[in-house]
Design goal:
By secondary structure, the protein is an alpha/beta fold. It has one domain: Divalent-metal-dependent TIM barrel enzymes (TIM Barrel). Helix content is 41%, strand content 18%. It contains 12 helices and 12 strands. The strands form 3 sheets. An 8-stranded parallel β-barrel has the order 1-2-3-4-7-8-9-12, surrounded by 4 helices. The protein has a two-stranded antiparallel sheet with strand order 5-6. Helix 3 links the parallel strand 2 and strand 3.
Amino acid sequence: MRIGFHTNSLSWQGLKDIDDMASWAIANGLKDMEVGPAIALDEEKFFKIKEEGNIDITTLIYCRNFLDTDELTAKDHQKNLIERIEAAGRLGIEKVVCSTGVTSDAFYGMRYNPENSLEAVVELFKSFLEVAEKNNVKLAIENCPMMGNIAISPYMWELLFERIDSDKLGLAYDPSHMIWQMMDPYDPIKEFGQKIFHVHGKDTEILRSNMNRIGILHNITEETKFYEHQWWRHRLPGLGEVDWRRVAANLEEIGYEGTISIEHEDPVWEGSLDKVQTGILKAKKHIEQYI
């Protein structure tokens, strides 16, 4: 296993040149880059970085609601994902991380039933996988419930993989999302072993004093109030509830040889480029003691 990072956290601080990111990462011992949508798909630059061999780019990521109720928006998201799959194929990038999309009939009142979107997702992914197979690229569905996604639990993964039998379809496994959904983040690694194509290095802290006061349904989403009233928050690996020793041990048991990609969304270590970079390196230091 190797440790890499997701570019979004650096992009959010204004660093958007892939060469500058690569130079910083190489200098700090990171081995892989997962490139988010804020980075221009400059194939010449990507190819040069890969050819030089000092750091790899094994993953592109594009998570959106591909089944948005606005048909033009949905078509645009689908087009952008297909463009990334095709670019990955040309560049020898092995996988693209994405969401599934979700239809409006999965939501009713305050309840959510992702199964209601299953048929639409299966039909949509026939076209995505046709492109992926043609370009020899794997699609790794992240288990994040946000961004339009039904692949949020072992139950839903089982349904999806039963309906879509393709060795190009698997998971981008993020244990942090299991924590705030009150699910076991460890055993599913062994259960879905060979379907885990990618791993996100992110943690979650349960803010129990907030939860005791407001419950789990009160989630303010305005940026300035989000963590004041939220009952959980993402943290760097080692600062939340996930036992990374167990995660690493289970990944070793299934023979995972890919990347643990640090996805920095920790509000304590945001606010400046220096803080974000320090946060990524703190996460690296914590994870690497177990691999």
